Amino acid sequence: MVSLQEQLMKAGLVDKKKVNKALQDKSKQHKEELRTGTKAVDQSREAAQEQQRKNAERARELNAQRDAAASQKAVMAQVVQMVQQHRQPKGNGDVAYNFTLGSKIDRIYVSDKVQQHLVNGRLMIVVLDGVAELVPKVVGEKIAERAPEVVVALKKPAVEQPAEDDPYADYKIPDDFTW
Fold it and tell me: According to the per-residue pLDDT averaged within each range, which of 1-10, 27-36, 66-75 is highest?
């Protein structure tokens, strides 16, 4: 079997002087290691191991991102399925019901009965791809656990305690009062 040195010499890439110089350097290094008791650091091996560690870390990060995207996609698929299964009709659309979507005020047209359900908190509004859908409160809460950004937070008005000296305390203003 022909050694690598001989193959390089036949190919004309190195000459006899360079081969002898490399052998001498290797021998000196080996003797120095024996005398001092320390091993010479193989820089190419360390560089390769460092590169391998970096590649493994990058692969872990990419896998984590891929897993997070897949789980987010699965959650959105669950939300869409829940909305499709539990969608409630809006009625004939006589009454405009206003709600806030982010920083905008949006409106849907619902029947009087559906408006009462929304006001009383029995129905919730879920917005998927710009389309507002009505779902029961129980389903809306489950959706809010998975993806709170698609559920419109309907704030229940706090019951105000009238002042003690309020002359109109006995006269309540109805919630469904429209001007």
Answer: 66-75
79 and 126, same domain (yes or no): yes
SS3 state at 134: strand
Question: Under 8 Å CB-to-CB from 113, ≥6 apart: which residues?
Answer: 91
Please calculate the CA angle 133-135-139 and round it to the nearest 5 degrees: 135
The tokens for 172 are: 């309540």
Long-range CB contacts (within 8 A, 24+) of 99-103: 99/125, 99/132, 99/152, 99/154, 100/152, 101/127, 101/132, 101/152
Both 31 and 70 in one domain: the answer is: no
pTM for the model stands at: 0.56
9 and 81 co-located in one domain:
no
134, 87 contact by CB (below 8 A): yes
CA neighbor of 102 nearest in space, from 157, 136, 150, 158: 150
Q: Dump strand ranges (E) for the chain.
A: 95-101, 104-110, 123-128, 131-136
